[in-house]
């Protein structure tokens, strides 16, 4: 009788093990397949985030300029995230386009540090959906004005959820007010203080380009040059390469920077991947590296 009971217990135990093992094995198979798809992906998008008061239409002219004289055309996908976490997609990614441009904007596009935190969360919602749908394993990031602040907050608070399976290769910020409107870096805003505090979360293999506009000697007409330059306290000596540039002349005013021809050339030279950018574009820019 005892042997019979022991046999029943062993049978029951075996059934439980099988019941646990089957879904676990299925999950492992599914997860391994997902990771394998990501490793095989050739897509490396450029993901752009506009500044405050701007929409997903902000970079239309910039994309047209990038495509105008380029042998490889970028398709354009736009994602708008509303305050209820709903995503609206417009445009599409063309088949065979390994470097599409994706613009992520927000219905609540107001200024302010508290709002930048919210926008970083909405950026993460869109980014997660994009990684699930397109399974890219690397990308480049671009942010104009507050878009650079949103990317910075996202790097420090969300990026670790994706790394090392999804890698940000390069980040380019344009006219980004790292110290808001404060021109004296000795008077750091709470946002800049927080960015500096969490800077160690930023990946060390990242390449960062921080571009400012030079409408005057100390401002692009809206953002103080010293506020843009304050990005060095966040990225310098933390990332693999940190480079600053200043564009001057026509269209160097803050709102005109995305359409500035020098900025377009800088994007083609430093942000795009070499194998897809136009070989005939000039490559003369001198940079300051730290």
What does this structure look like?
This protein is an alpha/beta fold. The chain is built from eight helices and nine strands. The protein is globular and about 80 Å long.
Secondary-structure map with pairings?
Blueprint: H1 2-40, E1 46-49, H2 60-68, E2 76-81, E3 87-91, E4 101-106, H3 113-134, E5 138-144, H4 146-157, E6 167-174, H5 190-197, E7 207-214, H6 225-229, H7 232-235, E8 241-248, H8 261-271, E9 288-289
Parallel strand pairs: 1-4, 1-5, 2-4, 5-6, 6-7, 7-8
Antiparallel strand pairs: 2-3, 8-9
Helix pairs in contact: 3-4
Oligomer state equals: single chain
Q: How would you state the average pLDDT, rounded?
A: 87
- Number of strand segments: 9
Q: What's the number of helices? A: 8
Residue fraction in strands: 15-25%
Shape: globular
Structural class: alpha/beta
Strand order of the largest sheet: 3-2-4-1-5-6-7-8-9
Q: Unreliable segments (pLDDT under 50, ≥5 consecutive)?
A: 25-36, 276-290
Helical fraction: 25-40%
Radius of gyration: 23 Å
Order of helices and strands: HEHEEEHEHEHEHHEHE
């Amino acid at each position: 009788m005892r042997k019979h009971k022991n046999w029943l217990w062993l049978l029951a135990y075996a059934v439980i093990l099988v019941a646990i093992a089957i879904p676990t094995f299925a999950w492992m198979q599914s997860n391994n397949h997902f990771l394998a798809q990501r490793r095989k992906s050739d897509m490396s998008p450029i993901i752009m985030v506009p500044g405050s008061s701007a929409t997903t239409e902000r970079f239309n002219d910039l994309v047209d300029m990038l495509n105008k004289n380029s042998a490889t055309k970028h398709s354009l996908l736009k994602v708008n995230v509303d305050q209820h976490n709903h995503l609206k997609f417009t445009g599409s990614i063309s088949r065979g386009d390994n470097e599409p441009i994706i613009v992520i904007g927000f219905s609540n596009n107001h200024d302010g540090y508290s709002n930048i935190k919210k926008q970083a969360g909405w950026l993460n919602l869109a980014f997660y959906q994009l990684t699930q749908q397109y399974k890219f394993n690397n990308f480049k990031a671009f942010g104009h004005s507050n878009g650079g602040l949103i990317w910075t907050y996202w790097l420090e608070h969300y990026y670790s959820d994706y790394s090392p399976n999804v890698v940000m290769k390069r980040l380019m910020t344009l006219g980004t007010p790292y110290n808001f409107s404060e021109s004296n870096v000795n008077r750091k805003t709470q946002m800049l203080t927080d960015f500096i505090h969490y800077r160690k979360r930023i990946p060390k293999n990242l390449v960062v380009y921080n571009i400012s506009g030079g409408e005057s000697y100390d401002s692009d007409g809206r953002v103080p040059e010293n506020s843009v330059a304050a990005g060095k306290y966040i990225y310098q000596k933390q990332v693999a390469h940190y480079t600053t540039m200043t564009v001057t002349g026509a269209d160097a005013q803050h709102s005109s920077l995305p359409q500035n021809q020098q900025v377009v050339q800088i994007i083609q030279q430093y942000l795009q991947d070499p194998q897809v950018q136009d070989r005939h574009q000039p490559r003369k820019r001198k940079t300051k590296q730290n």
